[in-house]
Design goal:
Blueprint: E1 4-9, H1 20-23, H2 45-49, H3 61-72, H4 80-88, E2 109-110, E3 116-117, H5 120-130, E4 137-141, H6 147-154, E5 158-163, H7 166-178, E6 184-188, E7 201-206, H8 215-219, E8 221-231, E9 238-246, E10 249-258
Parallel strand pairs: 4-5, 4-7, 5-6, 7-8
Antiparallel strand pairs: 1-10, 2-3, 8-9, 9-10
Length: about 270
């Protein structure tokens, strides 16, 4: 499937506006999803009233296997390294206790401070879009619960993850340490500006949506590096993009409509 949209000069990327003209260029062979993938959970009274199960080391193995087979592999994610990482990562360790019974369900879940843990399929899809290999250096913007960073770490990736909310940063840092991930470094900062100290990166993944393409992130990509990011207005449908840096040009690929929480910060 050819999703390539356009090629942009590196120097004019700050002027890129994501709107009708650009979004309308989705290739004709791109499938239209039955529903727009959303990173914004829909809570119900029934969900709140359920009594969560108690987690034990293997109590979620069957649910995790079903999640990978039905929600992820069944929707076309095929990279064996990504599938294995989704099998290995204990998603239930990254959700709030009251949502343990939904840890492997086919939707995002709320975490603290108005943020979310993404739908498993979206995590797997965006991870596959990065096209990373063991030993690559990846920057994540929006640590959240730490789940996406953990998935990347299971792939033997060198992970650098930035979270702007101090409390979420502290929680995720402790959670990842408790799970014995030694190839993840965390930072409490505004992710819009990336993490220049460890640049350049083989790939960058952004798990919240700005309304434009952040120039500092493009500047921190290696030649040949990939940036996967949702872009669009707050509270509306956004577009999932994959950008590849080729010398002084950026190639842009439109992966369709999504909904994410907004990228916060001073920008």
């Amino acid at each position: 499937m050819n999703r390539k949209l356009t090629c942009l000069q590196f120097g004019v990327i700050p002027l890129l506006i994501i709107g009708t003209a650009l979004s309308a260029c989705t290739p004709k062979d791109t499938p239209t999803p039955a529903a727009i993938p959303s990173d914004i959970p829909q809570s119900t009274a029934t969900e709140q009233e359920q009594t969560p199960p108690t987690a034990t080391p293997d109590s979620f193995a069957n649910a995790r296997n079903r999640m990978v087979a039905e929600q992820i592999e069944g929707r076309g994610v095929s990279d064996p390294t990504v599938l294995e990482a989704m099998h290995l990562t204990p998603r239930h360790e990254f959700v709030l206790d009251r949502y343990l019974d939904q840890a492997y369900a086919d939707h995002p879940l709320p975490i603290d401070y108005g943020q979310t843990i993404s739908q498993p399929y979206i995590v797997a899809l965006m991870t596959e879009m990065l096209a990373v290999q063991a030993g690559d250096r990846v920057l994540e913007i929006g640590t959240g619960s730490g789940y996406q960073a953990a998935v990347l770490a299971e792939m033997d990736i060198e992970v650098y993850t930035v979270e702007i909310i101090p409390e979420l940063y502290s929680q995720a840092t402790g959670r990842l340490a408790a799970q014995n991930y030694t190839n993840i470094q965390t930072l409490n900062a505004d992710g819009y500006f990336g993490w220049e100290a460890f640049a350049p990166y083989d790939a960058i993944i952004v798990t919240a949506a700005p309304d434009h393409l952040p120039q500092p992130l493009i500047a921190q990509l290696k030649d040949g590096g990939r940036l996967v990011i949702p872009i669009g207005p707050v509270g509306a449908v956004q577009t999932l993009w994959k950008f590849e840096r080729v010398g002084e040009e950026i190639e842009a690929y439109n992966w369709g409509a999504v909904r994410f929480v907004p990228l916060t910060g001073e920008h």
